[in-house]
Amino acid sequence: MVDATIGHGGHSFLFGQRLGPAGTLVGFDLDSRSLERARERLAALSCKVVLLQSNFSRIAERLAELEIRQVDFILADLGLCSAQLSDSEIGLSFRTNMPLDMRIDQSLTTTAADIIREFDEKSLADLIFQYGQDRASRRIARYIVERRRQEPITTTGQLAAIVARALRAPAGKPKSRKHPATRTFQALRIAVNHELENLQDLLAVAPDLLRKDGCLAIISYHSLEDGLVKRDFRQNESTGVYRVCTKKPLVPSRAEIAANHRARSAKLRIAQKT
Q1: How many alpha carbons lie under 13 Å from residue 223 in its C-beta half-sphere?
Q2: Is residue 78 within 8 Å of residue 219, measured between CB atoms?
Q3: What are the DSSP E strand ranges found in 128-194?
Q4: In which element (H, E) is residue 77 found?
Q5: Is 243 helix (H, G, I), strand (E, B) or coil?
Q6: Which residue of 10, 51, 82, 189 has the lowest C-beta tally within 10 Å?
Q7: pLDDT value at position 126?
């Protein structure tokens, strides 16, 4: 099996227990620290464990290097882990003032601060609307451009405060549970890390990588990701490549959400190779 987003190995540990000595578990992650945590967690498994510091968009290439042509199961959990959100070097949180970076893959060259500094007002508005699905994108972009004329916007705290002012919400005291900067930060993170393109790359190669009756399971957290998965599964089902196992996505129960609030938007879709 392949865990395309192994993180600290929680999912892989559960699946790895079922693989047994004859099985192989391949895990991908961009974060070397996550891979070390996963290595420690999976050490007791009887299956073979191979961990790769790589983007899952390169899954076909990296599996070929291991002389693995096909697999029985691919899992991708597209959510961020708590360690990434709190990592001051990555700069994803608007609740703590951090450098405005957002590169989960540090080999990338463009940061969120670069986008905020270099994009014109229309391009910023389009990005926030397309990737953040925020109807107030034009107003937010206008406030960002006006503010950057006065001083460079280089931290998450600065940007969060600007968006809060644009939406007339007190910084740090949002009127709703969702912080007013949530959608803007989502848009920048998606753009910086090419998240949708990477997902499309995974979806494109998965049919060739899966053995007959093998499964692809993807957990998404916003409608842009879920829409890509839903359309890909339906298209492949219509051509006889997949059988979609989840006509509607599986979502967490109230108890699961109470135990892990960040799981509230998770949607799991599964397809089986025919």
Answers
A1: 6
A2: yes
A3: none
A4: strand 71-77
A5: strand
A6: 82
A7: 98
CB 233 within 8 A of CB 217: no
* pLDDT tens, position by position, 11-56: 999 999 999 899 999 999 998 888 999 999 999 999 999 999 999 9
CB atoms within 10 A of CB 272: 16
Q: What is the pLDDT of residues 144-183, one digit of tens each?
A: 999 999 999 999 999 999 999 999 855 545 455 678 999 9
Residues, the chain, total? Answer: 274
Hunting for tokens 């107030």 — which residue is that?
136
Distance CA(36)–CA(40), nearest Å, equals 6
CA atoms within 13 A on the CB side of 216: 27
Structure tokens at 71: 């697999």
- pTM of the model as a whole: 0.89
In degrees and rounded to multiples of 5, residue 236 shows phi and psi of -70, -30
> Please, which residues have CB within 8 angstroms of residue 117's CB and are 6 or more apart in sequence?
148, 152, 153
> Can you list the domains of the chain with their CATH numbers?
2-82+195-273 (3.40.50.150), 87-193 (1.10.150.170)
